[in-house]
Amino acid sequence: MIFYSKTDKGNKRENNEDFIFAPKESGGYFAVVADGMGGHMAGEVASRLVVDTIIDSLKNISPEDITEKVLTNTLTLANKIILNESYVDRQKEGMGSTATVAVFNGAKVMIGHVGDSRGYLFRERKLSQITKDHSYVQMLVDNGIITEKEASDHPAKNIITRAVGIDKDLDVDIYTLQLKKGDTVLLCSDGLNVAVSDNEIETILGRGAENAADALIEAALKQGGTDNISVVLAYMDGDSV
User: What CATH number is given for 2-235 in this structure?
Assistant: First the structure.
């Protein structure tokens, strides 16, 4: 497994409230994208707390021992830590973060997901979305009120319905997939997928994973770069991690 990653504050934001983690060397087994929100730069605090909690919780656990329960408990702990921080410092009240974390074990990936950052699978030159957004617009789509096409430019597309650090109870979605040699798993904040279409993401990934993180960020910037943009790519270069 080879990881590539990049984050950019975009063209319009003064600071980057995204925070990411990906192994710097081959052989790593988990990666994270977190997109923070909150005033007084509290979004930066929330996303960093999510990532730091995940790293601290998983770094000493073998990948085969990271179960759905372990991953859910890790995100629940991050939720508690953010809530406690917001209680201590009222300037951070209401801060929260998305969290999309991928754990790789052998030829399998398990993704824990809260919010509207996304996980995708790129296989045999085709892109498919793994995660489902926890957003108001996705709720409208699920209820047949608007179409997927209408959702892409809906004025409420930035409203999320679930985040780490907002409520005492946290509902975590878990997805598990079998991987094959040549697969790429993409984790991204919505600064990418709102600006760049799935078709364009697919085209860029089709040119190879090595330079794709830079190319995806550049594509989002060319489309205006109105939000922070984060990308983590995990390329399956063998039959297992």
Answer: 3.60.40.10
